[in-house]
Amino acid sequence: MPILHTKEEVDAWLTEAGWHPGRDVGEEAFEVIKTVIERYRSYGVEIEPSDHSLAFIREHSFLRAVIDTAPENFAIFTPHLAFKGDAEEISELAADLGVQLFPVGYDTYDGSTLLMDTNGRFFFSHHTGAYHLGREKYEALMSLMSSEMEDAEDYFV
C-alpha cells in the first residue's frame, strides 16, 4: 500500500474498505463498544468512549483496510482488546496523557491498538511503545500508513 499524503488518498483507501461519506453503523457500534468496555473491565480497567471516539466508531467500525500485503496486514477499525496486558498499558498511557483513551481499531499483524482521546487525538499502542498519530483522522491515518509517528511521551502531562 502506498503512503497516503492527502485527505483524498485517505478517503480512497477507506472507500476500498467499504467506507463512504455519511456512513453510520448505528446500533451495531453500541454492541461492540459494550463488549470492549466489559472486556477491559474484566481486567480492572474502566474505559468510556468520548464523543469523538463514538463518532469515529459509528462511521468506521467493521472496515478492514489493507496496510501492507507482505505480510498481510490490515487496519480493523473496530474497538478491540487484543491482549489482556494491553488494558493495563492503555490505562497507564491514559494517566500519563491526562486524558481518557478509547480503542477504535487495531492492526492484524501484531495486534497494536489505535486509540482516541477525549480531544479527538489519535494514539497507537505498539509493542515497541506508545505513539501519537495525529490531532485528527486524516493526520492520524497518514501517520499510520507511513509509520512516521511521534513518541506519545511528548504529550504526557
Secondary-structure blueprint:
Blueprint: H1 7-16, H2 27-41, H3 51-60, E1 63-69, E2 72-77, H4 84-97, E3 101-107, E4 113-117, E5 122-126, E6 129-134, H5 137-146, E7 150-151
Can you describe this structure?
There is one protein chain. The protein is of the alpha+beta class and 157 residues long. 38% of the residues lie in helices and 24% in strands. It has 5 helices and 7 strands, in the order H-H-H-E-E-H-E-E-E-E-H-E. It has helices at 7-16, 27-41, 51-60, 84-97, 137-146; strands at 63-69, 72-77, 101-107, 113-117, 122-126, 129-134, 150-151. It is globular and about 40 Å long.
Brief synopsis:
With 157 residues, this protein is an alpha+beta fold. The protein has one domain (7-155). Helix content is 38%, strand content 24%.
Count all strands and give the number: 7
Separate helix tally: 5
Helix content: 25-40%
Radius of gyration: 14 Å
The spatial strand order of the largest sheet comes to 1-2-3-4-5-6-7
- How many separate domains make up the residues? 1
Strand content: 15-25%
Low confidence ranges: none
Structural class: alpha+beta
Please trace the helix and strand order, writing H or E for each element: HHHEEHEEEEHE
End-to-end Cα distance, whole Å, is 35 Å
- C-alpha geometry: globular
Tell me the quaternary state.
single chain
Mean pLDDT: 94
Largest sheet: 7 strands, antiparallel
